[in-house]
Design brief:
Elements lengths: L2 H6 L5 H6 L7 E2 L2 E2 L1 E2 L10 H14 L9 H21 L7 E4 L2 H16 L5 E5 L8 H10 L2 E5 L9 H7 L4 E7 L11 H10 L3 E5 L11 H4 L3 E5 L10 E5 L1 H6 L10 E5 L2 E4 L13 H15 L3 H20 L4 E3 L9 E6 L4 H10 L2 E2 L1 E3 L4 H6 L5 E5 L6 H18 L1
Parallel strand pairs: 3-15, 5-6, 5-7, 7-8, 8-9
Antiparallel strand pairs: 1-2, 4-10, 9-10, 11-12, 13-14, 14-17, 16-17
The structure holds ligand C6P.
Ligand C6P binds next to helix 5.
C-alpha cells in the first residue's frame, strides 16, 4: 500500500513511512540507529534524494539565463518549487516567496533590508526570551546600527511566553516583534496569532521564525497575517543550504536588496542600477537550484499525507516519552509548556548533558546536547544545556523505548 492510498483511507501507515527514509536502516556503534535529533535536521525521503539526483543527472543548468533546453527545464523545476512553497504556506503570491540559505539568512535579510531602513533612535524591537540565536543576534546588530533598542518578552517557568508582560511592553515605539512559532530548545508552541494581532494593534510588523513549526504542522501565512515568515529546507525533510523567506508583497516592494550582483538587477550602468522585480530582487547570484528542487520534492512528499494525522502521531510520541520521563525521578524535564510539539528537553540529575549524549550515542541513540543555540533560555533555567530528544513522524514507540533503556544504562555508568 502506498502512502497516497493511506491518505485516501484517512489513515497513515507509519511503519511504511520508515521505508521511505533509507538512512534509518543502518547500525551505529553496533546498534540499530535510533534518530532523535530531528530538530537539528531531519532525514530525507527517497523522493527528495531522487529529485536531486535526477536534476544533476539530466537537467543541471543555470536558471533564468540560458537559451537552451536544459536551462528551460531547470528554470521550470526551480520555479515550480517556488509555487509549491507558495501553496504550502498559503501565500497570496509566488512573488512573496524568496529563496534563502535557511532561516538564519531569512532573518538577517529582514533585519538588514527592512529593519535597518525603518528603525531609529527610541524605536524598539521585541523578541522573546525563548529565541534561537538566529532570532536574537541579527536584531542586536541592527539595533546597534540604528540606535534602536532590543527588549525581551519574558517566559515563565514552564517555558511559555508571558502574554500579560508582552502587553505591557507593547506601545507605539515597538516597530518589530520577532518570535519563534515553536521553540527548538523546549518545544513550546507559541501563540503566534495572538502575538501578531497585538503587535499590529500598535503598528508593529511581525517576523515569525518557523524553523521548528513548518516540519510539524500546516502554516497559513494569510490566516496568521504575519508580515514575514522563515523556515529551513533541511528541517522539512529537504536539503541543507536552502530556505524560505515569506514576506508581504507591499513590504518586500519597499525593501532594499540584501545582497547584490547578478540576477537581482534590471539594468546596470556606471551611472546607476535598477533592481529586478520580486522575488529576484532578493536573490543575487546563482541560486541553490538543486536545493530548491529538493525542497519542492520534500513538500510534494508531505502533501501526500493529511498532515494533521502526522502531527497527532508525533504528539502521541511526545506524550509517551514525557510519561516515561515523569516516571523516572532521576530525570528533570526542561520545558513543560501546555502546548508543545516535537521536542523533549531533559537532564539526568547529577550528570552532564554531554556525557549523557555520548553514552546514548554509544548505544545507537542520536540526540543533541548543549545549549541548542538558545543560551538565554538555558541561563534562565540555570542549566548549562540539556539533552534533547526530538521527534519526526518516522520515529516510533520502539525508538522511545530504546531511548529509555539507553538512559537506564547511562545512569548505571554515571550516577
Ligand atoms: N536549530 C537546532 O538543533 P538554520 O540553521 O538557519 O537552518 O536554522 C536556524 C534556526 C532558527 N530558528 C530556530 C527555532 C531553529 O531551531 C534553528 C536551527 C537547530 O535546534 C540548529 S542550531
Amino acid at each position: 500500500m502506498t502512502a497516497t492510498q493511506n491518505k485516501e483511507l484517512g489513515a497513515v501507515d507509519f511503519e511504511l513511512i520508515r521505508q521511505d527514509f533509507p538512512i534509518l536502516h543502518q547500525e551505529v556503534n553496533g546498534h540499530a540507529l535510533v534518530y532523535l535529533d530531528n530538530a537539528a535536521t531531519t532525514q530525507k525521503p527517497k523522493a527528495v534524494i531522487e529529485a536531486i539526483e535526477h536534476y544533476y543527472q539530466l537537467d543541471n543548468s543555470n536558471v533564468h539565463r540560458g537559451a537552451h533546453a536544459l536551462s528551460d527545464r531547470a528554470t521550470q523545476k526551480f520555479e515550480a518549487a517556488r509555487s509549491s512553497v507558495q501553496a504550502f504556506l498559503n501565500a497570496q503570491k509566488r512573488e512573496e516567496v524568496i529563496w534563502t540559505r535557511g532561516t538564519t539568512e531569512s532573518i538577517n535579510l529582514v533585519a538588514q533590508s527592512y529593519a535597518r531602513n525603518v528603525l531609529d533612535k527610541g524605536d524598539v524591537v521585541l523578541v522573546s526570551a525563548l529565541e534561537h540565536h538566529s532570532n536574537i543576534v541579527p536584531w542586536q546588530i541592527v539595533c546597534e546600527q540604528t540606535g534602536a533598542s532590543l527588549k525581551v518578552i519574558p517566559v515563565n517557568g514552564a517555558g511559555e511566553i508571558e502574554i500579560e508582560q508582552y502587553d505591557q511592553l507593547l506601545n507605539d515605539s515597538v516597530k518589530i516583534v520577532s518570535v519563534n512559532h515553536v521553540s527548538n530548545a523546549l518545544g513550546t508552541v507559541n501563540p503566534v496569532k495572538t502575538i501578531i494581532d497585538k503587535a499590529h494593534a500598535v503598528g508593529a510588523k511581525v517576523m515569525i521564525d518557523g524553523a521548528q513549526a513548518a516540519p510539524h504542522f500546516e502554516v497559513n501565512v494569510k490566516e496568521l497575517d504575519c508580515d514575514f515568515y522563515a523556515f529551513s529546507g533541511h528541517k522539512l525533510f529537504g536539503p541543507t543550504g536552502i530556505g524560505v523567506l515569506y514576506g508581504k508583497e507591499n513590504l518586500l516592494e519597499q525593501m532594499t536588496p540584501f545582497q547584490s550582483g547578478g540576477e537581482m538587477i534590471e539594468v546596470v550602468s556606471f551611472e546607476g542600477t535598477t533592481y529586478n522585480k520580486l522575488p529576484y530582487k532578493f536573490e543575487a547570484g546563482t541560486p541553490n537550484i538543486a536545493g530548491a528542487i529538493g525542497l519542492g520534492a520534500a513538500i510534494d512528499y508531505l502533501n501526500q499525507f493529511d498532515r494533521r494525522l502526522l502531527l497527532q502521531y508525533e504528539n502521541e510520541l511526545l506524550s509517551y516519552s514525557t510519561e516515561l520521563a515523569l516516571e523516572d525521578s532521576d530525570i528533570q524535564l526542561v520545558g513543560t509548556a501546555k502546548d508543545k510539539t516535537g521536542v523533549m528537553s531533559f537532564l539526568i540529575k547529577g550528570a552532564h548533558p554531554h556525557d549523557v549524549g555520548t553514552l546514548l550515542d554509544q548505544q545507537g541513540v542520536a540526540v543533541r546536547t548543549g545549549h541548542h543555540c538558545a543560551m538565554p533560555i538555558m541561563k534562565q533555567f540555570k542549566v548549562p544545556g540539556t539533552v534533547r530528544a526530538s521527534f519526526a513522524f518516522y520515529n516510533n514507540k520502539q525508538d522511545i523505548d530504546r531511548l529509555f533503556s539507553a538512559i537506564k544504562k547511562t545512569k548505571s555508568f554515571l550516577l
